[in-house]
Amino acid sequence: MEYVLAFLVLIGVLIWFHELGHFLMAKLFGVKVEIFSIGFGPVLISKKVGETEYRLSALPLGGFVKLYGEEEQIEDKRAFSSKPNWQKILIAFGGPLFNFILAILLFALIAMVGRQVPKYLYEEPLVGHVVEDSIAYKLGIKERDIILEINSKKVQNWKELENAIFENILAKEWSVKVLRNGEEVSLFLKDSVSKSAGFGAEPWLPAVLGRVVEDSPASQVGLQAGDKILKVNGKEINGWYELVKHVRESKDRPVLLTIQRGDSIEEKMVIPKVDPRTGMPILGIAPYVEKVETREPPLQAILEGFQRTYMLSILSLKALWSLITGGLSIKTLGGPIAIAQLAGESAQHGLIPFIGMMAFISVQLAIFNLIPLPILDGGLILLFLMESIRRKPFSPKFKEVWVKAGYAIIIVLAGFVILNDIMRILSGGRF
């Protein structure tokens, strides 16, 4: 129920803001708005205010603004059909524009309210672990390397490094400069980069428990948050990733942990369980990550909102292009079930993560609606641009075929992503 409620709140806000963009842009150019609807299908609530009927409908998977003269040619200055194409384009663009604006405002709100972030983000990017089969692994980055540059962009801390990775994560070529044993080393990688493991360079983390999952092997033997792991099977370890390595090498065999709790030293025998999603043995623990609170003044927060929205938009466009060219599998697409899953999980972690997820989905909604497919905003913009080039409107028959083709494409796409979501859940995977 919590997931459903989180989904309805998230999608309701996003749809309302999107349709508000169309509504206000239409009003700006003097177009009469007949209906403003959140949702499709049977009308649950309806109220007419002035010349516009406002609706809340049963199917919360979209919304629409019905404009006077949108479906037929009417010679009236308040009709959509009588407006010049540049105004029609801006009215169509109003929805995605407002989704971008919403993302900027939400990211800015998060920055102003303040949030807990890992302290290491503001420390030099000293590599404590390299994930196998990752970009960093294939580049040849090693533990104890200090990363200086990513594709010619200098980085001074983990936050700048993460931003640089974010901008380049779908790049086919990588150029990285590291400081290794006091000497600068340049590393290069071309073609066939595996995206499955991400960039794969991680900061060093102490082998201290930050969280113990309820009913996990760790909780069953009494491990607690704050415990420091000193040894695994009698061998001293240095950091969290050595602990993970030993646990994975153990398969499902018992693991003897030597822990420090306060001033006392104890030993705990734990039998890992295999995670069905990954096939890896796990204990049900998460590392302790020291946090600091950051809070930005309004102007800086808005600037950060612009920056994060821009970076996310660029990454989304790159991902879309990779889907078109085959660089990314279409199985990575998610539909309403995936959005509900993300909304519910983020809501469980608190209001700030939920707002961040809403900003993320808002950018995706804007990008999706700008795809030049019939019935999407991008398709309408393309249609009006083509009419401007040919200097006369298309025939009603062409527009009818255009709309029907659009509905067919969207129905097929919606069916695919919903089926993809269901298959992902049945296989135990996550979006």
What descriptive keywords fit this protein?
431 residues; alpha+beta; Pdz3 Domain; 4-stranded antiparallel sheet; 18 strands
Quick summary:
Strand 1 and strand 2 (52-67) form a beta hairpin.
Strand content: 15-25%
Which structural class best describes the helix and strand composition?
A: alpha+beta
Largest sheet, in brief, is:
4 strands, antiparallel
Overall outline:
elongated
Q: Whole-Å distance between the termini?
A: 19 Å
Question: How are the strands ordered across the major sheet?
Answer: 6-5-7-8
| Fourth CATH level, the homologous superfamily of the domain at 120-202 | PDZ domain
Helix content: 40-55%
Account of the protein in words:
The protein has 431 residues and is an alpha+beta fold. Among the domains are: 120-202, Pdz3 Domain (Roll); 209-287, PDZ domain (Pdz3 Domain, Roll). The protein has eleven helices and 18 strands. It has a four-stranded antiparallel sheet with strand order 6-5-7-8. Helix 4 packs parallel to helix 7. It is elongated and about 85 Å long.
How are the SSEs placed, and which strands pair?
Blueprint: H1 2-28, E1 33-49, E2 52-67, H2 85-113, E3 115-118, E4 127-130, H3 135-139, E5 146-150, E6 153-154, H4 158-168, E7 173-180, E8 183-190, E9 201-203, E10 209-212, H5 217-220, E11 228-232, E12 235-236, H6 240-249, E13 255-261, E14 264-270, E15 273-274, E16 281-282, E17 285-287, E18 291-294, H7 298-325, H8 336-348, H9 351-369, H10 377-390, H11 396-426
